[in-house]
Design brief:
The structure holds two protein chains of two kinds. By secondary structure, chain A is an alpha+beta fold. Chain A has helices at residues 11-20, 31-42, 47-57, 61-70, 90-94, 97-108, 150-161, and strands at 82-87, 121-126, 138-140, 143-145. The chains are: A alpha+beta, B alpha/beta.
Chain lengths: 169, 799
């Protein structure tokens, strides 16, 4: 059984992982979903996460790192409380995605993959987030904000800074 | 499988169905280039170099993954294919630094060859190259990312081949890297490292210069070395290692060890010791002058003539005054068969004593006696690669005989061999095993009885981890095998071994091998470095074979008795050739205070330090001759390195005998053939002489020209030693040949002490010699830096 004694995850997540490894023909198919859920809970894929997932699936830590490093949505360093993902793919780019990105950089004082000193925001330039109809769009944690202008971004950041923003996981 | 017929480049070819097109082309002499393809490991089709045009198939197909089919029509070299390969090379060279002038692989690089062939020197890709700093993964493995073409060979080699899985690919696209299993953030020095067996197979498999070896990198270029294929001096597998040598002011220095032509008994494999641990030869503390103890107790360098004079005079005097029985002789596990044979002949016929022994690392006497009179029952190392079923009782091949372990893994992986292991430890090979019997500690005697059919022995085998039923199912499965290769560790010896063999030989299609620890441990026993047996396990009394020896028929003193005699003041002289018994057997040096001790060694070992005369010896890489591996496979040793001041053990024994006034013609039968010095006994070109000897032998012109010619003794070995009816051309061509021990069916001493002392070497030690290898020391230090992380631990196949 793949239940782990001293799990670093919450009881719900641990139970979910216990189930997850049983539902695929190959145990290692559970690897990517497990990494994503773990990241949602811990905030990033830490060495401890890698170790526990390797143990749960019966892989080497090296195998987990090989997969982990392939996906840009998985991160190995903590993000800010609100992770701002700015799309710069074609629709957003045509509608000012780079201006939004530059504005975010200036406003937050950080670059791509950066985290503000207070840890509230982090910034990422990402590929298409599937909101082309309302470009330019950004995603903050799992919440979409579209049809943006730099002014709207300012308002948005203030809402989050005031603790009024949605914090979906 | 049935053969299929197909056409490649207009030539009609035939190959068994299922053969990969690339292999079929190779067999027919048609070269299809490939980077990611490596025989015996899983297919990748990652590099796209082997693309060929197959009629009726769309696009170009990869020859490395396409099995041949009936009627297939293939083109391997057309302008279209050349263009495709050129485009692939341009992509591979996109970030490749093209630092061939300084790269280790320059001159023997597959990428370089292909670039020359397809002319991709100019490229469409003008972007700045993506540079990364080189990484030191371990003292012996370095990684240069920019040179890497991501062919995956190293990853498969490490995972499938070595069952270590220390390497993986990380990141994506052009930022992909080969990553080791200890990431930088988990390492004490914040640098990425490998936690592995340090075998260097990744370096060997690397088609470019991305993985380089700590011993060789940036030292020289491939074309500046002479390459001499010889036999590794370390474990009992006797792998062929090709030593790259370069002239220096005081001889010829070994700068590289690798598995260059893969022509040896070891096939693709070479472990860390064969690859890196040749550097003892260059150790600064190496002796290059004979030392003689002065009246004030100091060892002082003297000339060879003075030292040999003294040894000859003293040996003769002590023999004549106190008798041969007062002299002890200790031989080596690392000298050639010729030297071991000569040493025992010298002891028996010149010193007149049977007090001769060596550090026994497995009980070959019981093995030979157990198989006496039965031919065809001993296994060759080659059999481990092909046997349909293998049982390993005791031992840990992964550590003690890495070549054997490699062959077994390959056999299990590619030919679905069934592996059965019984051991008191959970050895790593159990991951490949179909059944693993975990026996209680120290119960190998019971194991031998149990395998032989004694059910009452299960009580001794069982422990908290394993019950009796598991042993019965293990034995049933083994007995059900129609043919079986039985590898026996050195734990099983004496009566236990004979009991096991007595049963085993009653079963059909069983072959046996006894694993020992050093390159010529088997040869030492075969050549009669034993107090109670002559070469070929011939009993002392009542034999006619060695009648010309006229040797004392009473058994001499064994290793322990020699030192007991010394303690009692009964040992007048002790002659130690390439051994360190003081350290190995914990002998009290003061017991030898009144014994004249002569030691032939490379270093001032614990034994040499108390000697009256120390003679600086050449090592196995600096001499010619033959060695016999654990399995009884005889192979040629060729001279690679050279060091001014040292002499081979062979020469020293002959010279001492000469100084004692012995009849040299009787000791070394030389001077009977063509009278001309072909130089095979000395000089940096002795390897040339060996090749010359092939021609001479083919023309029935074997010269035994000088008393220092080991082949003169090989003649005698071939003539006298039972079982050593070797094929000379096979030997001189550098091939292995399997020999069988041939103990006479004469008297067998029942309660003989086996005196087996396993060497217990780890992957990074090799007896006394290993202590003088800087690279082995570095690797031990490297291991000690990191507590076992368990990163390489995975579940066994049985789990």
């Amino acid at each position: 059984m793949s239940t782990v004694a001293n799990t670093i995850f919450s009881p719900e997540t641990a139970a979910r992982f216990d189930h997850l490894v049983t539902i695929y023909p190959l145990k290692r198919s559970a690897l990517v979903p497990m990494l994503l859920y773990a990241q949602d809970e811990i905030g990033y894929v830490s060495d401890a996460v890698v170790a526990e997932i390797a143990e749960r699936i019966g892989l080497l830590e090296l195998d987990v790192r090989n997969v982990l490093s392939y996906y840009s949505m998985l991160r190995t360093k903590p993000a800010g409380k609100y992770n701002v993902q700015v799309c710069t793919n074609i629709s957003c780019m045509l509608r000012g995605g780079y201006e939004i990105l530059d504005h975010c950089k200036a406003k937050l004082g950080i670059g791509h993959k950066g985290v503000t000193p207070d840890g509230v925001f982090s910034l990422e330039e990402v590929e298409c987030i599937g909101a082309c109809c309302w470009a330019p769009a950004i995603q903050i944690n799992y919440d979409f904000h579209d049809d943006l202008t730099p002014e709207k971004v300012d308002v948005l950041f203030q809402i989050y800074r005031d603790g009024q923003g949605k914090d979906e996981k | 499988m049935a053969d299929v017929t197909f056409t490649v480049d207009g030539k009609q070819l035939t190959a068994p169905a299922g053969t990969l097109l690339l292999e079929a082309c190779k067999s027919a002499g048609i070269e299809v280039p490939a980077f990611c393809y490596y025989p015996g490991i899983s297919l990748k089709a990652a590099c796209r170099m082997c693309v060929v045009r197959i009629e009726k198939m769309p696009k170009l197909q990869t020859a490395c993954t396409t099995p041949v089919a009936e009627g297939m029509v293939v083109q391997t070299e057309t302008p279209e294919i050349a263009q495709a390969r050129k485009a692939t090379l341009q992509l591979l060279l996109g970030n490749h630094p093209l630092d061939c002038p300084v790269c280790d692989a320059g001159g023997e690089c597959e990428l370089q060859d292909m670039t020359f062939k397809y002319g991709a020197a100019t490229s469409f890709y003008a972007e700045p190259k993506h540079h990364r700093e080189e990484q030191k993964w371990s003292p012996v493995v370095y990684y240069d990312r920019p040179r890497c073409i991501l062919c995956y060979r190293c990853i498969s080699m490490c995972g499938e081949g070595m069952d270590v899985f220390a390497l993986g690919i990380q990141n994506r696209g052009s930022s992909s890297v080969v990553a080791p299993n200890v990431p930088a953030q988990m390492s004490p020095d914040d640098l990425a490292h490998v936690d592995c067996e340090q075998c260097g197979m990744c370096i060997d498999a690397c088609p470019v210069g991305a993985l380089t070896s700590g011993t060789y990198r940036y030292k020289t270029r491939p074309w500046e070395m002479n390459h001499v294929s010889t036999i590794c001096t370390h474990c009992g597998d006797g792998c062929k290692t090709t030593l790259g040598v370069r002239s220096t002011s005081d001889g010829s220095e070994i700068v590289r060890g690798d598995n260059r032509d893969k022509s040896g008994i070891n096939g693709d494999f070479l472990c860390n010791k064969g690859r890196y641990a040749f550097d003892f030869a260059n150790n600064e503390t190496r002796l290059t002058q004979p030392l003689v103890r002065q009246p004030n107790g100091e060892l002082k360098p003297v000339s060879w003539e003075a030292a040999l004079d003294l040894v000859g005079k003293k040996f003769r005097e002590l023999r004549d005054t106190r008798g041969g029985k007062s002299i002890g002789v200790i031989g080596s596990n690392r000298t050639t068969n010729e030297e071991s044979y000569l040493l025992q002949k010298f002891a028996r016929t010149v010193l007149g004593t049977n007090n001769i022994d060596h550090h026994r690392t497995a009980d070959y006497v019981a093995f030979a006696q157990g198989l006496a009179g039965k031919a065809g029952l001993t296994a060759s190392l080659n059999d481990t690669l092909t046997a349909p079923a293998i049982m390993i009782l005791g031992g840990d091949p992964t550590i003690q005989a890495p070549g054997t372990a490699w062959n077994i893994r390959t056999n299990v992986r590619n030919k679905r061999a069934r592996l059965y292991i019984a051991n008191s430890s959970e050895i790593k090979l159990r991951r490949q095993a179909k059944a693993f019997a975990h026996i209680a500690p120290f119960s190998y005697g019971a194991l031998a009885s149990f395998i032989a059919g004694d059910d009452s022995a299960t009580d001794s085998l069982t422990h908290a981890g394993a019950d009796a039923a598991s042993f019965h199912s293990f034995r049933d499965a083994v007995r059900a095998e129609e043919s079986l290769l039985v590898l026996i560790g050195s734990e099983i010896r004496g009566a236990d071994l004979k009991r096991l063999l007595a049963f085993g030989t009653t079963m059909p299609n069983r072959k046996f091998a006894l694993l020992s620890d050093y390159v010529n441990s088997r040869g030492a026993a075969d050549m009669g470095l034993l107090p109670d047996l002559l070469p070929g396990y011939t009993p002392l009394a009542g034999n006619t074979t060695f009648a010309e020896y006229n040797t004392p028929s009473a058994p001499g003193l064994d290793m322990l008795e020699i030192f007991e005699a010394a303690g009692k003041g009964e040992l007048s002289a002790l002659y130690v050739v390439g051994a360190n018994p003081i350290s190995r057997y914990g002998v009290d040096p003061s017991s030898l205070a009144n014994t004249f001790v002569v030691v032939q060694d490379m270093f001032l070992t614990e034994t040499a330090a108390i000697a009256d005369v120390v003679l600086p010896a050449a090592n196995l890489y600096e001499k010619s001759g033959s060695v016999t591996n654990s399995y009884g496979d005889l192979q040629l040793v060729s001279k690679a390195g050279d060091r001014a001041g040292v002499r081979t053990d062979f020469e020293m024994i002959v010279r001492i005998a000469d100084k004692m006034g012995a009849n040299m013609q009787a000791l070394v039968p030389f001077g009977k053939g063509t009278r001309a010095d072909m130089g095979q006994s000395r000089g940096a070109q002795s390897g040339e002489a060996d090749r010359h000897a092939v021609w001479l032998t083919a023309n029935h012109l074997e010269p035994k020209l000088s008393p220092f010619d080991p082949f003169a003794i090989l003649d005698e070995i071939q003539r006298l030693v039972p079982g050593y009816n070797l094929m000379r051309l096979q030997l001189l061509s550098g091939n292995d040949q399997h020999l069988e021990p041939a103990a006479g069916n004469l008297v067998q001493i029942a309660n003989r002490r086996d005196l087996v002392l396993p060497a217990n070497d780890s992957l990074f030690t090799s007896g006394t010699l290993g202590r003088y290898s800087a690279m082995l020391s570095d690797l031990q230090h490297n291991e000690s830096l990191r507590p076992p992380t368990g990163l390489t631990q995975i579940q066994t196949a049985a789990d």
